[in-house]
Design goal:
By secondary structure, this protein is an all-alpha fold. It contains five helices and no strands. Helix 2 runs antiparallel to helix 3, helix 2 runs antiparallel to helix 5 and helix 4 packs antiparallel against helix 5. The longest helix is centred in the middle third of the chain and has 30 residues. The chain is elongated and about 50 Å long. The two termini are 30 Å apart.
Length: 154
C-alpha cells in the first residue's frame, strides 16, 4: 500500500508543471500575436489554452487528493492559501476557455481581442501566485518531501 499511496501523493507534483508550461506558452504567443497576427499561431494558442486548462483541472484534483494527509495539521491553513490561488486560476481559465470556444463557434475568435489578452495576463499573474505558494509548501515546509538529501548537511 505504501507504493500506491506514494504514487497518489506524487501525481500532483508531476501534473502541476503541464498547466504552468502550456498556459504560459499560450499567453506568450497571444502577446506576440497581438503585435503580429498569424492564423496558424492563433490556432496554436487555442490548442495550448484548452490542453493547459484541462491539465489545470487535473492538477487541481490531484492537489486536492495530495492535501488530505495534512488536513488535521497546523499546515492546513498554509495549504489552503495555495488551494485558493490554484482553484481560482483553474476557474478563471475554464471561463476563458469557454469564452473563447463560444466566440470561435460564432466565427469571431476572442483570442485576438485586447480584453482577452488582459484576462489571460491576469490569469498568468494568478498562476504565478499559485506556483509561488506551492513552492513555499515544498521548500519552506517540506510538504510531500520524502527521504534525506545526502548533499545537505544535517
Amino acid at each position: 500500500m505504501g507504493l500506491l499511496s506514494d504514487t497518489v501523493q506524487d501525481l500532483h507534483p508531476i501534473t502541476v508543471h503541464f498547466p504552468i508550461a502550456l498556459l504560459v506558452f499560450s499567453a506568450g504567443l497571444s502577446v506576440f500575436l497581438f503585435i503580429r497576427p498569424n492564423a496558424a499561431l492563433q490556432q496554436a494558442t487555442w490548442v495550448l489554452l484548452w490542453v493547459g486548462t484541462l491539465s489545470a483541472a487535473v492538477s487541481s484534483v490531484t492537489g486536492l487528493i495530495s492535501h488530505f494527509p495534512y488536513e488535521e495539521t497546523e499546515l492546513h491553513s498554509v495549504i489552503e492559501t495555495h488551494q485558493f490561488w490554484s482553484f481560482g486560476v483553474t476557474a478563471l481559465f475554464i471561463a476563458v476557455t469557454l469564452w473563447r470556444w463560444l466566440s470561435r463557434r460564432r466565427q469571431t475568435d476572442a483570442g485576438t481581442s485586447p480584453l482577452y489578452l488582459l484576462v489571460v495576463l491576469i490569469g498568468i499573474a494568478a498562476l504565478t501566485m499559485s506556483g509561488l505558494t506551492g513552492g513555499d509548501l515544498v521548500y519552506d515546509y517540506g510538504i510531500n518531501v520524502r527521504g534525506i538529501n545526502p548533499l545537505l548537511e544535517q
